[in-house]
Design brief:
Elements: E1 5-15, H1 22-33, E2 37-46, H2 53-60, E3 69-73, H3 80-88, E4 95-99, H4 109-117, E5 122-127, H5 135-152, H6 156-159, E6 163-167, H7 168-175, H8 180-183, H9 187-190, E7 195-200, H10 212-226, H11 229-258, H12 266-299, H13 316-340
Parallel strand pairs: 1-2, 1-4, 2-3, 5-7
Antiparallel strand pairs: 4-6, 5-6
Helix pairs in contact: 5-10, 11-12
Length: 342
């Protein structure tokens, strides 16, 4: 960047069990922010660390520590997106950047700020160097991302990576959502805001290791919370079961009418079973639709957002006011003159 951004920049770092690296890591990040924006704040979210990270952060936030540092220590470990939102909702900057400094390169933030200054409301940055990942993890990740793209039309790796720069407009929009922590990951990429997707390559400081066990639960929660496809599949199967049982009942009645050598009790037993399965399918269908309706009410966000705002340069109301004010000024001398004459 040629000149610092004339705005307040908030940078949210999500860390866990990094006590040994904190002084060097935060010190380097804090010094870099001074050249990126005229004002800045560094927000650290400690994601339930079990080492001495909180004590180290408390010392760094002291009188002899780092400037403009805020620390939010969570009581227990949560997924990255939830921890990131804990920092984002407390940020007051005109722009808010979110990253994991052990996996993403904070130096690339200068390029992201340039994209934001050019008009992008949200800037995503993807590190093409993913670090070491086992074969099982890579296969499971590919299956998950393909499935999620099929359900939602968004590839989270490329369309909504975790490293991002949000404008205040995005943050305010998310704050209006009833469950912003669930919408934070996907909504900025799908709500119609102006966005920029950037790529870079940098070796992760912490190796970028990921474990399959740690990410399976987060993947399932992300699918369930951001798409209705799983529950819609349940209601579709329930409807199919109800129709199939009706057709089977018609078949049983047709056999009873057209055939004479039907085994005793087969018709009544078949009708009883098909009736019970029909009732169960209808109950599941109604229950599934009710759950979908309640989920829509509980997670429904604001019905609109203002992407751009313009004001006409020509204001007829102001012109009329100017005429009235001019008329008053013009009549005043005549009034005084008439009052002064005999």
């Amino acid at each position: 960047m040629s000149a610092p951004l004339p705005a307040l920049l908030s940078v949210v770092l999500v860390l866990r069990n990094t006590a040994a690296r904190l002084p060097a890591l935060l010190g380097q990040t804090s010094r870099g922010l001074a050249s990126l924006a005229t004002d800045h704040e560094l927000i650290v979210v400690d994601n339930g660390s079990t080492d001495d990270s909180v004590a180290q952060l408390r010392e760094l936030a002291g009188a002899d520590g780092l400037p403009n540092l805020q620390v939010y220590a969570l009581t227990k470990e949560v997924d990255f997106d939830t921890a990131a939102w804990a920092g984002v909702e407390s940020a007051i900057g005109d722009y808010v950047a979110v990253l994991d400094p052990l996996r993403e390169d904070a130096r690339f933030l200068a390029t992201m700020i340039e994209a934001g200054a050019d008009g992008a409301d949200v800037v995503f940055a993807e590190n093409e160097d993913k670090g070491h990942r086992g074969l099982g993890y890579r296969i499971a990740a590919a299956v998950f991302h393909r499935t999620y793209r099929w359900l939602n039309g968004v590839d989270l790796r490329h369309d909504a990576p975790r490293y991002r720069l949000l404008s205040r407009r995005i943050v305010n929009f998310l704050l209006r959502h009833p469950v912003p922590a669930l919408s934070y990951r996907l909504l900025p990429a799908t709500a119609g805001f102006r966005k920029a997707n950037l790529r870079y390559r940098a070796t992760p400081v912490g190796g970028g290791d990921s474990r399959l066990v740690d990410d399976v639960e987060r993947a399932v929660r992300l699918i369930v919370s951001s798409t209705r496809a799983p529950m819609r599949l349940v209601t579709g199967l329930s409807l199919f079961g109800a129709v199939a049982n009706v057709l089977y009942s018609v078949y049983v009645i047709a056999v009873a009418i057209l055939k004479r050598d039907v085994a005793p009790g087969w018709v009544t037993l078949s009708l009883q079973q098909s009736g019970m399965f029909l009732l169960m399918s209808l109950v599941l269908l109604v229950l599934g639709e009710y759950i979908l309706h309640m989920a829509a009410l509980s997670t429904e966000g604001p019905r609109y957002h203002v992407a751009q705002e313009f004001t006409s340069a020509v204001q007829t109301r102001r012109r009329r006011l100017n005429v009235e004010e001019a008329a008053v000024v013009a009549l005043a001398p005549r009034g005084k003159a008439s009052g002064a004459s005999p």
